[in-house]
Amino acid sequence: xxxxxxxxxxxxxxxxxxxxxxxxxxxxxxxxxxxxxxxxxxxxxxxxxxxxxxxxxxxxxxxxxxxxxxxxxxxxxxxxxxxxxxxxxxxxxxxxxxxxxxxxxxxxxxxxxxxxxxxxxxxxxxxxxxxxxxxxxxxxxxxxxxxxxxxxxxxxx
Length: 157
Ligand SMILES: [Zn+2]
Ligand SMILES: [Zn+2]
Ligand SMILES: [Zn+2]
Ligand SMILES: [Zn+2]
Prior knowledge:
about 10% strand; alpha+beta; Di19_Zn-bd; binds zinc ion; zinc-finger; KCMF1/Dystrophin; EC 2.3.2.27; about 40% helix
């Protein structure tokens, strides 16, 4: 399914896409985003998640393994701050916005190619904890501790 711009109605555009984290299923192309397009419900105050289109994604990753230098960063749907990772967004939301519980669109689900692009939740911190606690990082820390343990054992022998 291709996404079209909700302002100029251009379909399947190249380049960056911006998705509103407050309005359900509201996407803009970068031209309309920069022009500050609004509707009766959408205002420029709404935080928007910048999403790389599929072709950009392939361009960045080129089929190679992901590195630490990931081009995708996440926007806080409550205050619009940019540049979070899955882990730092969770920390931020639990420490800064634990009192907020209105419905927002999950920026992580919206940005990942296999995600549900319009996942709306009124328990965003809970959703982050359930779905985005980065299991690969936990695996890494497990492997590191296991490796250290092995080294310690070898050192003792
Ligand atoms: Zn547009
Ligand atoms: Zn909006
Ligand atoms: Zn925030
Ligand atoms: Zn999500």
